[in-house]
């Protein structure tokens, strides 16, 4: 995928020091911070609770397997996969994304829309579709029925499991299946409707005059059913009438526990597109840094880019679902790496569903070498590679460890100075190479954690320490 580098201004890097060592390019952290806490940090993020365009609506959500899960409900959401299984599924997702955007050229950035309201829905860590994901709880139908949904910026069609749906082909979920016959506002989309013809690659023909849909995911999972319309309630005071979604009657693959998926992609079927007339096409999210903390998704806000480090939003012309930005460089320990800008020419997909960031092999090799060299003076013993992660350490004998800072720079001057949760995962450097320098990079959710990531149709913004 060739992106127009001439449209991007490359700039230097900067760091926001967290500790005294940060000014020298290092941070010292307690190894206890790497452990999964058994105590719920039962607090809503301050930025999520602040007014946005005069409206604020916040819902508390929890990690499905973490200490904040509702009493007696965590086991119903299924057992978490092993870390190695998660990485295997993550690799399938990354390869799928790269296949979809391969060969695409950059289109002009989208137009910014004026926001009028704001609805905020917290997001929390969860597992689904075979990889690490985040979930939100909304309500569907009249009367409103709670639905816990996976959030995915790489998907457009939202869907829930609907009655009738025996198991199999439906999977076990925490909440009762959505029953369209009990919702007074439900209707199946007719085959002749424009919204049916606009499904394009998600179309699955017609049956009995009803529009069919099908969505296939990178790990081989699928959902099929009737394309439908109903009222989607984000919070008690924020509802979207006539929301289009898939009423799933047959699901196959690695789904587990959640009731469905909420698509935040860029095409017309997504929540962002359908809600644009209400919330102005602006949305943001903050992925929580730990399993025992809470993040959020905000539709319609923040209305201003003040405080955000912004970069132009680019589009893959043959697959406009994805949010794409241009990487400009990487620093380790405060020192920019010597990487030619052409290495990043294929752009980077900003994705909530990919776990660890993927970089072109040339860039990854430079990052790995610099990171290992910066760690060497401390003498931390190495640990075996874990799946796609090949730079791992054994910190079991240490109360604190010192890590080199890592900063990712983007076109237009934006930069992300990563927190420690964005540098390591399970003791390993949380980056991996793509299949070749010509493939797109992917900004994974490990690196995005604790940043508020804002999209307005023309730019992507990053604000640290937001949840």
Automatic annotation (TrEMBL):
PROSITE patterns membership: PEPTIDASE_A1
GO biological process: what's one of them? Answer: proteolysis
State the signal peptide span: 1-22
Entry keyword set: Aspartyl protease, Disulfide bond, Hydrolase, Protease, Signal
- Protein's organism: Oryza rufipogon
Instruction: Give every Peptidase A1 domain span.
Output: 134-465
Similarity comment text for this entry: Belongs to the peptidase A1 family.
Instruction: Output the InterPro entries linked to this UniProt entry.
Output: Aspartic_peptidase_A1 (IPR001461), CND41-like (IPR033873), PEPTIDASE_A1 (IPR033121), Peptidase_aspartic_dom_sf (IPR021109), TAXi_C (IPR032799), TAXi_N (IPR032861)
Q: Which SUPFAM superfamilies match?
A: Acid proteases
Q: Which residues form the active site?
A: 152, 351
Q: What is this protein called?
A: Peptidase A1 domain-containing protein
UniProt key word Zinc: no
Q: Name one GO molecular function term.
A: aspartic-type endopeptidase activity
